[in-house]
Design a protein that fits this description.
alpha+beta, Carbonic Anhydrase II, 13-stranded mixed beta sheet, three-stranded mixed beta sheet, 7 helices, binds zinc ion, transmembrane, cell membrane, lipoprotein, GPI-anchor
Length: about 325
């Protein structure tokens, strides 16, 4: 624990009332006290939770208690689309039992909202080595509809990101699956602001009112995974790379898929997530880890979208140039 004088110094530094010379003297002692505070606790937090009053383990210190968080193949990442390489093996996914309705429980776990799902829905193909069954889903978001996704595309951060976590079909728990370098497959979906509300999200959004406090949980009305994501025909364009969990322990056991087509939600719907509370009663906002270095990893893309979009534009340009497009 920090001594009384250390607390006073921290307060003074926060208030900017210490001279530069004093700071030089105090800083080493202060760093030592941060070290003690931040290594033992293991109470990780997001950058948005860190303040002078609450010096928790922000993302740059996650490695103190969880060494995998400084691994070479961490997530999330920024995807630079012109550097992705097209991979013909990245075929459309086969979704099984994604339409199946279930009565889930939604919980505020102090870092996010999470819904456990019965292990009935599975994904296969899509370049995956085997079939994977859904275990849980959760979300990452910003402040009142502001930037909040974990992955970014060409530097763009979307307002929210959905992670449907799957494990290889033969495992029975996530802990075991995480000891296999390809044990977990996460399907990631971005959100975009739309003018109208997405009624398929009513079960989730209505339930948030009841779980504002950390550890709050409530049962959901019957719903399916399919109703949360775009229609299957709009899920053929995606990015693929190998990475990690984006929260401690940051285990590098994840085959990542990020779908190009975002899910629409209205601004009002996005804002409801910011009404949730962290354990210290503060607004649960900015629940994303900053992007991590690629360290030489290749990001692949499925056959389609990026190339298709540019070839459509190219064809239109050629048609215009040749005077083929008729005004009407
Ligand atoms: Zn996640």
């Amino acid at each position: 624990m920090r001594s009384h004088w250390q607390k006073q110094v921290i307060v003074l530094l926060c208030l900017g009332r210490v001279s530069a010379n004093m700071q030089q003297l105090i800083l080493p002692a202060l760093l030592a006290s941060f070290w003690t505070l931040c290594t033992g606790a293991g109470d990780w937090c997001y950058q948005s939770q860190f303040s002078c009053d609450h010096q928790c383990n922000a993302p740059d210190k996650w490695n103190h208690a969880h060494s995998d968080c400084e691994g070479k193949y961490q997530s999330p990442i920024n995807i630079v689309t012109r550097k992705t390489s097209k991979d013909e093996r990245l075929t459309p996914f086969q979704f099984d039992n994604y339409q199946q309705t279930f009565r889930g429980t939604i919980k505020n776990n102090g870092h996010s909202v999470q819904v456990g799902v019965p292990h009935l829905s599975t994904v296969s193909d899509g370049g995956l080595p085997t079939s994977y069954k859904a275990v849980q889903f959760h979300l990452h978001w910003g402040d009142n509809g502001g930037p909040g996704s974990e992955h970014t595309i060409d530097g763009e951060q979307y307002p929210m990101e959905l992670h449907i976590v799957h494990m290889k079909h033969h495992y029975t728990d996530l802990i075991t699956a995480l000891s296999d370098p390809e044990g977990v497959a996460v399907l990631g979906f971005f959100y975009e602001r739309s003018n109208s509300a997405n009624r398929k999200y009513d079960p989730i959004i209505n339930a948030l009112q009841s779980i504002k406090a950390t550890n709050g949980n409530t049962s959901l009305i019957p719903m399916s995974l399919a109703q949360l994501i775009p229609a299957e025909q709009n899920l053929t364009t995606y990015y693929r790379y190998k990475g990690s969990l984006t929260t401690p322990g940051c285990t590098e056991a994840v085959i990542w898929t990020l779908f190009e087509n975002p899910i629409p939600l209205s601004m009002a719907q996005l804002r409801v997530f910011s009404e949730l509370k962290f354990h210290d009663e503060k607004q649960m906002v900015g629940t994303f880890r900053p992007v991590q270095p690629l360290n030489g990893r290749q990001v692949f893309r499925s056959g389609g979208a990026v190339i298709l979009a540019s070839s459509v534009l190219l064809m239109a340009a050629i048609a215009t140039a040749l005077g083929l497009s008729q005004p009407n």
